[in-house]
Design goal:
By secondary structure, the protein is α/β, with parallel strands linked by helices. Helix content is 30%, strand content 26%. A six-stranded parallel β-sheet has the order 2-9-1-10-11-12, with helices on both faces. It has a six-stranded mixed β-sheet with strand order 14-13-15-16-24-23. α6 runs parallel beside α7. The longest helix has 18 residues. The relative contact order is 0.12.
């Protein structure tokens, strides 16, 4: 049986996900075979594993920190909020349907069995499992239905470190209240860590001493507020906090900025698709619902969404559909990602009520495609290459990428219910999960283009350094600016950021205490 350590929090957004990632890297650097685990995650940001399973993106980042491949057992249950339909329930990487809270809680036994089976498989494979809780373990109205906090700590026999965010205020009250509400279960909590502290830690000493006296549990670390972490956040709540603190790569030069606006949809998902753009030294990127921002941008991106039809109607309600069309007609470069790609088409059909009771809706009509929602979700990592189109037309920026660019392989992933038909054919795509399971070498056509507008189902396409720079250089050319070289490797930037995070956290907490707790 693996050794286990669990990180719980006094609430949501206290930093559990990144804390687990930091510990995964710390122990990996010490030569320990370590894996992350989160029994149940609720997030619209998801990741597709090599075998086509869907898990929370936070667990994929934690696996990256542990230098192991992300697998479905690291997050056996993923809940994706879907408005009045409740949430899409994904177990062991595959959706089993939409459920409202009462329905889901009625199926607790099935969910709990999935949690246990995943943990058992991980424990046979890894020497150490770092477990992440969810929200607060002291939500007394949910304790009977708990399958992610203390229920997991008990089952996995995991000592718990309780993390509190002092930047929110009331951290000592949160520590004390959590212990008192948990009763005997608080015995699993072995220590506290204060996160996101600003200022001189000496002023905390009276509080640290008093909370230890009142709870008989030590505070083993005070982690300073870390600016410019440079790692993907858990959910879109972060967009209103410190998401824009990501700093562009310093090249020692200043550049005229390309203004990119990501339309902030109501049910926006997988917004981490655009993280690499934040690092580009010639980019000014913003998430906005402001018509002026959209119509004065150099590039407008309509992102992925968990509810395409609702977000299309949301755009119409705010009259942003008109702003996007005006931007297109004025030559602004428009891009649609997944659900955004569907929104840019002529029509969307939902014959099986996959998303809503609306059977048919008019899209923005910029791309000559129609989308029909299917009962089965496509989830796969993909390899893609540029595809010649009618008359030999291809991406207009392709010549800026060099002579060999057309043969270069793009990597990303697909995650969508809809299938689009019509003027489709920007990319040839191979689905890796299909290749693995059946040996199929079949390729699919993906993406559509109309003048200065294009869309694709390929999430993560901007992670490809040469492709991202090619898009930006094409926009620079339109603006009369000289092209720039590739300034950084995004994958290397992420790895460096994980390393820096791990160093910062491990230097500010008592790692000897944790290692003694684990008998290492």
């Amino acid at each position: 049986m693996s050794r286990t350590l669990m990180i719980q929090g006094t609430g949501s957004g206290v930093g559990k996900s990144l804390f687990v990632a930091a510990l995964c890297r710390y122990f990996n650097n010490k030569g320990i075979n370590v894996s992350p685990f989160k029994a149940q995650n609720m997030a619209l940001n998801s990741y597709i594993t090599i075998d086509g399973g869907e898990i929370g993106r936070a667990q994929a980042l934690q696996a990256e920190a542990a230098r192991v491949p992300p697998i479905i057992d690291m997050n056996p249950i993923l809940l994706k909020a879907s408005g009045e339909m409740g949430a899409q329930v994904i177990i062991h990487g595959k959706p089993i349907g939409h459920m409202k809270p009462r329905q889901y809680y009625a199926n607790k036994k099935m969910a709990w069995e999935a949690v246990k089976s995943s943990f058992k498989r991980l424990s046979r494979k890894y020497d150490l499992i770092i477990i992440e809780g969810a929200g607060s373990p002291a939500e007394i109205n949910l304790m009977d239905a708990d399958i992610v906090n203390m229920a997991v700590a008990r089952y996995c026999k995991a000592p718990v470190i309780l993390l509190g965010d002092i930047d929110k205020g009331g951290v000592f009250a949160s520590f004390y209240g959590t212990i008192k509400l948990l009763g005997r279960l608080s015995n699993y909590i072995k220590a506290f860590v204060i996160n996101k502290f600003r200022g001189d830690p000496e002023i905390l000493n009276p509080g640290l001493k008093l909370i230890e006296e009142k709870t008989k549990k030590p505070v083993i670390g005070v982690v300073p507020y870390l600016h410019h972490i440079g790692l993907p956040e858990e959910d879109s709540l972060s967009l209103s906090r410190n998401y824009f603190s990501i700093k562009p790569v310093n090249t020692g030069k200043s550049y005229e900025k390309i203004k990119i606006v990501v339309v902030r949809l109501k049910y926006m998902s997988n917004f981490t698709d655009f993280d690499p753009l934040f690092y580009e030294p010639d980019v000014d990127i913003n998430y906005s619902q402001n018509p002026t921002d959209i119509e004065n941008a150099d590039m407008v991106i309509i992102p992925g969404t968990k509810s395409t039809i609702r977000d299309l109607l949301f755009l119409r309600e705010l009259k942003l559909d008109e702003s996007i069309k005006r931007a297109f007609n004025n030559g602004v470069y428009i891009m649609g990602m997944c659900g955004g790609y569907q929104i840019l088409g002529r029509k969307i059909f939902d014959p099986f009520s996959v998303e809503s009771k609306t059977k048919e809706v008019e899209g923005l009509g910029i791309l000559d495609i129609e989308t029909t929602f299917q009962k089965t979700k496509v989830t796969s990592q993909v390899k893609a290459e540029f595809n010649g189109r009618k008359g030999g037309e291809i991406f207009p920026f392709l010549p800026l990428l060099g002579q060999d660019s057309q043969s270069q392989e793009l990597r990303g992933y697909e995650i969508h219910m809809g299938e689009s038909t019509g003027d489709v054919g920007l990319f040839k795509v191979k689905r890796i999960s299909e290749c693995q399971l059946s040996g199929s070498k079949k390729f699919y056509l993906d993406g559509s283009q109309n003048s200065n507008c294009w869309g694709t189902y390929i999430h993560g396409i901007f992670d490809n350094d040469y492709f991202r720079r090619g898009v930006l250089n094409y926009i620079r050319e339109i603006k009369g600016l000289s092209p720039l070289p590739i300034n950084f490797s995004y994958s290397q930037l992420k790895d460096d950021a994980i390393e820096n995070l791990s160093e910062n956290i491990s230097e500010n907490i008592d790692m000897d205490f944790i290692e003694r707790l684990l008998n290492l």
